């Protein structure tokens, strides 16, 4: 741009990567080019959230994917859960998988559902450059599990995120059950919640909930997030929530 004689450059965000540290902007300004920083910064920051988060923390951006009925249930009293949401919502969730570098589930989910955790998209959305996300199991996966080969991890979730970040994972999609969801939530490690909600109701107390264990004891102890996007996906709703 300097050699081309550009007089003005508009930049949404400065790259937080310490290897860069705004050097490009400084070079442009030193060459007498007018550089405006911050144009539509919020919009761009949302699009680049995984990259920005990884560069500033060294950890992947954690997306917790959830699916439930209107009354917050994920499975019936008998454990059946396939499928609460419709085809369009499930396809949309596969797009979320495709955007992620790794997918994490708990060993309990592997034993109960034996998921392959592959990306399955319509032919029109596939590319020859597509690669499958790294499959991560919190705990030990059976040797004959459909998601093999996979990376088995255990211990402190923060340490696990540090390791995944060092492996170059920018976005981690957590698809585990209620126990894994609660563990990441209570540790404050979820950066974005993506909830697919079906217009259906189990009713009663026996169906399984989004999060396991005891919840907040009083209204004042509720965790409250901020809805950043709402969309209709087929017959279901997709809510994106951040802290």
From TrEMBL:
<dbReference type="GO" id="GO:0008703">
    <property type="term" value="F:5-amino-6-(5-phosphoribosylamino)uracil reductase activity"/>
</dbReference>
<keyword id="KW-0521">NADP</keyword>
<dbReference type="InterPro" id="IPR050765">
    <property type="entry name" value="Riboflavin_Biosynth_HTPR"/>
</dbReference>
<comment type="pathway">
    <text>Cofactor biosynthesis; riboflavin biosynthesis.</text>
</comment>
<dbReference type="InterPro" id="IPR024072">
    <property type="entry name" value="DHFR-like_dom_sf"/>
</dbReference>
<feature type="domain" description="Bacterial bifunctional deaminase-reductase C-terminal">
    <location>
        <begin position="60"/>
        <end position="234"/>
    </location>
</feature>
<dbReference type="Pfam" id="PF01872">
    <property type="entry name" value="RibD_C"/>
</dbReference>
<dbReference type="InterPro" id="IPR002734">
    <property type="entry name" value="RibDG_C"/>
</dbReference>
<keyword id="KW-0560">Oxidoreductase</keyword>
<dbReference type="GO" id="GO:0009231">
    <property type="term" value="P:riboflavin biosynthetic process"/>
</dbReference>
<dbReference type="InterPro" id="IPR016193">
    <property type="entry name" value="Cytidine_deaminase-like"/>
</dbReference>
<protein>
    <submittedName>
        <fullName>Unannotated protein</fullName>
    </submittedName>
</protein>
């Amino acid at each position: 741009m300097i050699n081309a004689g550009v007089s003005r450059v508009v930049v949404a965000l400065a790259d937080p990567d310490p290897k860069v540290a705004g050097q490009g902007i400084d070079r442009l300004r030193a060459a007498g080019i007018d550089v405006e920083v911050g144009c539509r910064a919020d919009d761009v920051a949302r699009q680049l959230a995984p990259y920005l988060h990884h560069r500033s923390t060294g950890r992947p951006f954690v997306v917790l994917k959830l699916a439930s009925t209107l009354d917050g249930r994920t499975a019936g009293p008998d454990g059946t859960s396939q499928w609460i949401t419709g085809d369009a919502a499930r396809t949309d969730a596969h797009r979320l998988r495709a955007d992620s570098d790794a997918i994490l589930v708990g060993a309990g989910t592997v034993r109960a559902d034996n998921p392959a955790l592959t990306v399955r998209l319509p032919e029109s959305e596939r590319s020859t450059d597509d690669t499958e996300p790294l499959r991560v199991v919190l705990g030990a996966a059976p040797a004959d599990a459909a998601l093999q080969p996979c990376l088995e991890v255990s211990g402190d979730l923060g340490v696990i995120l540090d390791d995944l970040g060092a492996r170059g994972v920018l976005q981690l999609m957590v698809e585990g059950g209620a126990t894994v969801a609660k563990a990441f939530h209570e540790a404050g490690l979820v950066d974005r919640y993506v909830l697919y909600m079906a217009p259906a109701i189990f009713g009663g107390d026996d169906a399984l909930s989004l999060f396991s264990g005891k919840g907040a004891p009083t209204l004042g102890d509720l965790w409250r997030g901020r809805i950043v996007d709402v969309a209709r996906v087929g017959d279901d709703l997709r809510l994106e929530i951040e802290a």
